[in-house]
Records
---
Amino acid sequence: MAIVFRWDLDKTYLKTEFSRVQDLIRTFFQKAEDKEVFAGATTLIHALDAIPESKTTFISGSPRPMRKVLKKKLELDGIHVDALVLKPNFSNFLRGRFRALKEQVGYKLPALLEQRLKISSAHTEICFGDDAEVDAFIYSLYGDVVAGKIEPQRLKRLMQKVGAYEDQIDHALELYVPLRQRQEEKNPVERIFIHLEGRSGPQRYAAYGVRVVPIYNYFQAGLMLYSMQHLHMDDLLKLTQTVLAHPRLNEKRLANSAQDLVRRHHLALNVIDECLQGARTLGDKELVECFERASRRTRELDKEELQKAPDEVQTIDYEKILEMRLLGRRHSKDR
Amino acid sequence: MISKGPVTIALDTMSGAQSSTHAIRAAAKLSMKSDAPEILLLGNEHEIGSTLDGIRHDAENLAIFHTQAADSALSKACTLVKEARADALVSAAPVEQLRTTCKAMLTKMDNVDKQALCAVFPTEKRRGAKEDPFSLILDIGFETTATTQNLVHYALMGAAYAQVISQNSKPSVALLASSPTLAQAPTHLQQAAATLHESSTMNFIGLLEPVDIPLGKADVIVSDGFVGNMALKLLESSGSIIKRLITYAHRQKILAKAGLMMLGPALTNIKSFMDWQEYGGAPLLGYEQLCIKLAVNASEQAHYNALKVTQKAITNDFLKICKEAL
């Protein structure tokens, strides 16, 4: 199966702080060896990279001068990278394009479309982002553009609305033409994982439909990928072991994470039982306890609620999402 | 001794008079702290889930236990602590409901035949390493009567709680009476005072009149449930009485009106200071399991404070210290 895993870097793979200028400076000068990764992320990438014909790409808002250190970090983590795209922030600054320093849609969307044209149309994609920026918006829009669900005029209006520069919009529209000439998958972007690094309420992503799955950790991503048959049981158990070894996480937290996914209708109950069976076969006591607890936790949920089908979003109303986002910004400024 | 591993608290979200939102939001807020406990949210899953989904929280530290009705949420919480699946329970259930459920489901401590419900009351004096501005009053109505032995147990358990929560190494303890003269007190009070005086570990300061409670003359004030409940209700009502008197004065003269308008914010502060319910929860003592009770109309902040106090009590092994004190 030809599949591409597209990752963001900061706050998705790497633990990065950039809420203050001091943090930005510190991150910029931080050595590769000092960069921290979220629990289980490396193990998950390794497992996904082992899938035949799979590709791993990183498209990040980090500035291009950081390429050397980021590449070294990924090498240290043993990650094979098919593409590493970084933001031209230095040239944005020199050209006085200050809006582009922060704005991500005008940069990431054309970058994703460019990457798409480099692979065959038979590839499906799974994207990983976070709640710090607009990753859910970008990945969803990208998926819908490739699937032919967004007309060029609408794409132009949306990009104008988010504050993209004219040349960025033109570039996206140029890439749109060859994409439309290809026989693309009906749903090229199969799933979008949003790492809730800022612990945002998952409801924030309801407007994007079930394709977008907000996750609190990579154990949750592992469970989902296993249920989607992209991860083998052995790999999921290995990932769980890695996450359990992390000082911040323990079996209670993982059991609650599993219950959370089941409650939000992203995961079927039987997956936890399959994991428990897998852990028993492996004979790892800690894993067995973890999945036993997860199984007990999920059984505490309301059976009637579990049987209800989640609200499906037929078409994403990007204009409304942007309006709500602008309203939210104004609201927080007023406060 | 500090207990090992993450603390688990069962939070009854249904039994209070307010909507469950206060309890859920408080749990969500605490879940994001780096040292957050695991919080088991007992209540209606739909309500809990829809509240959580709309606000920032850390799902790793929260679990939902679905129950249909308020009494089943409290019963379930009791079952969880009894089976050691949770370290403590927090509930805003009315005293009647709490009494019935806890008596039926929790295990009494050895030799403690009557339990005591505590309340914290704001005082002028500050105490302990954290300079807490509260006194602990018990029993405030879990039981009606108390024997000499019961009062002594209450004093020992209350002092242990003050030691752990306020980090007050030797809290002062008093018995609530109508007069500070021992001879005028009922016999069981005199006998309890004599026993507490003899105790080498207890900092017993004698009898205390209700008027001395707000002055903070004792860190722990002990009485039977009937008297304690009346004293507390009288103290609670002071804020409302002041407000009524002010409203009355307000109507009388224009000068008073103007003066009161200027004093308005300060008077509001006094009222909120007097409102002990805002300060969070207080324990139900005498059970092998830890139970923290909130006021039935507890706010989000009160729930948050109660959860923090519960976490502190468990982390500092309060129940063990309490049993050793008895």
---
Amino acid sequence: MKVIEAKIVVLGSQGVGKTSLVVRYIGKMFSKHISPTIGASFFTCNINLENARVKLQVWDTAGQERFRSMAPMYYRNANAALLVFDITSVNSFQAIKGWVKELQSNVPEAMVLSVVGNKSDLQQLRAVQAAEAAHFAESIGAHYVETSALHEPGIDQVFLSTASALLQLSPSLPSLRSYDSEAEDRVPAGMPTEEDATHTGKVELPAWSIDSIAHGQVQKSCC
Amino acid sequence: MWFGPNLQRSYKYMMFASKMPSLRIDQSDLKCKNGCDYFGNPQWQGYCSKCHREQMQRQRKAEKASSATLPKPEQKKQEKGLKLTSHSSFSKFEEKRLRQSETLKKANLLKFSVFKKSNTEDHDHSSEKRPPEFKIPALVNEGMKSEFRARFPQLPAQVDRDARVFVHSFIMDVIKCANVMTVDELSERVQRQYQRFMKHMDTSSHFANVDSDTKELLMDFVEKHAMTYLHELPSVVFSPSGTDDERLDRAMSERIQQLSWVGERHLECKLDRSNAECRTLLYKAISELLGMDSAPGPGGKLARVRRACRHVLRLCSAAPASADDLLPALIFTVLKANPPRLVSNINFVTRFCNAQRLMTGEGGYYFTNLCCAVSFIENLTAESLNMDKKEFDCYMAMPASIGGSSWAAALSLCGAAREAGEQRGAARRLLQHAADLQAAAQQLASNALSFEEQIAKKVQDVLAKTPLEIKPRRELPRLGKLQEISTAPLIDLGTSTDREEPQPQPVPTSQPQPAHTVPVEPKELNVTLDPPEDEPKLNILGFEVIDRQSPSKSPQNLDQTWDLKRTNSLELLTPSPLGFTPFDSRSIDELMTPDDFGNDQLPPGLSNINYDIDLSDFSGDNSIAEDAPKSEPKDPFSPDALKKTQTFDPFAPQTSRGYDAAIDSFDEFSFVDQKHKETDPFEVVHRGQDPFSPVEWNVDLGKDQFRSQSPAKQSTSILDDNDSPTTGCLLPSPLQPQSSGRPN
């Protein structure tokens, strides 16, 4: 079975329910097939798709504006991002647009983006129209899901769609770590970074590269 | 060590790796770009190590100069802070802590300087030469072995071996590169090493049955051991020499001190200071953060951070503790903890922790949070605290001690308390150690005493047994007697010597005599005091024995007494049948032989064998030896007429006897001479005495040489042939034939 490890970062303004979303998902899935690492802002969960397993590391971030400048540290090397906004707050939706721009300019690799409109239970206070959000999501190539951390519709869908998108993306994602879980005939599938390293690594490692010594003087004497 | 050659190869390979594509490399391609005669290295941009370092230094200086022109806000604040906080008690704590860490570092540097120096020296000398093999203490290896067994008992030994090989090569590589590379390059290199090990684990057959979780554990295991060792070396991986880490540490520590007035209110984190549980959590978090500095290896530091953050998370009372709460609380904790060498630690982990681990996983997440907290503190402004700029400046201008509440003071004391606790622990350990040492010393002393007693007992036992053996030795005196006996005949020879070399010989004889006599006496004493008294009787005995042997071989017997003496000599001479000279050798041999040999000499066969060996040194002479006796008479004649007459005289015992009375003083010399009047010039006599007293023998030889040489030049050609008396002494018989051959 193919296994993919991915890092997913949850971005959004303060108070949009990022953590609630995650906690709700983890808490709900806990009884099923998910083995979460207990911790309030960092989780790992395994999502089993039909022919693969996706290991998700969920990094929650602080949404306060004053910590905004630190965000790059969090989303560095992330493979997916959940952009969470509050459907009752236009500002939070605008903030999402800012996040997307930042990600696009700062992250060189392709990322799986998901736009999540949270607090869908507060329909009467809705300030951001679903169509508008969906349109925006489509423009950036992202899924759009409306969720409610309170009533938990859509939450599964967020993570499932992210996982399957990651699976599709995995062949083209260099930083995504994937391998076969079959221990017997394990081939280092992904990990081009390792591939790069082995080239230079061979050069440096004595025990595994004994024959490959290039020495000019020796060559000379031969001829 | 068994990985030595591999390392060597790898080094070579590294040096020329960039040249790989072209099959032939001219030697000039390998030289330093600067044109000095040393070899260059692609790692050093084609320079030799020396030129490269110079280049690097120039670059760094330029960078510093450019950066110095830009005013650094931090530095300004530092100065201010120093003035302001100099009288606060809290700042004293901090200063002490800083000083401690610095002195610690210096001490480490001193320890390490031996290695460093040798390394740099070698690089200066020539880049091609490898630095002296730096031995990684066996402790690392042993530690790995034992821990591996404890942690991965199910894994095969091959894995253990691979891990250790990797750690060793890794450490060596880092140490080698540390001097030449910038920190970032080194960090990259380290990361590549980690990845290579991962790759190795994925591909090697040894790891086929290892699941991925175990592989990660193995990775951590390897990283931990390699980095723990490197961490101890100052300025290699931890706050390396080329970086500003140390200065930044100080700046950060001062900055945090300045911000000690910042409370949870400013950071908008919800802490319940009245809650005792909350307080203990905070204390725990603080002490974990403080412990980060003392944890060796990035993994250990990361673990500390993780634990600290978990405490902080629990601290956030909000039901689903989110990152929104975690970060402010963590910032607050860091502010209160003011961990020592914070920047250095963070940089160390960032650079040298396995990137895979740092990017992912809980530790990575919390570490990222810590980095955020630090960068937040660095860039903290009035806006980021949501407060008025004036108020902020006012707080910043305030002495640190005033800004803090009692709660803040208590928190700041937390660090001191922890330190005190640690030191108490250290003191206890030291005490225990001292006690152990004392106990060991006492044990050792008692052991020494008992050992001494045992030895004394044994010695007494041995003494009790041995005295019996000493008495039987009296048989030996025969040798001494024999020697003395021989001395008596020497008188005869002495006369002959006088004839040959009247002037030179007397001088040597007179001086050497005392020396010779002294050595002879002590040995005699050892054996038995009797010999001198018994001399006459013993002499007779000795002669008797000799007589039995001698008659068979002595070809020419003019007189009975003479014959007896001759016989002795002849036995010795048989191998080299030079009539008279053999006699000398014989006498020498007798002297040479220890007391036991004296006894052995009585049986003829044994004595013959011994002499053969001695003479064999001059192989050519030996062959001549049989003819020699016939030629002997001729030889002495040929060199000098005087000698010829002398040689003849000895044949006639009467003449020699007449001289005996004249030369009493030469007894010892004559000892040999008596038997061979011709040999006298060689002063073989000395040898005979020498064997008894080896030490004095040398001295005598020295004297003899001078003396003998001078006389030889003056009087006799024979002496000339044997330049050194020693050679003459050793092989009296061969000498004669040689001399004879030349003159003839």
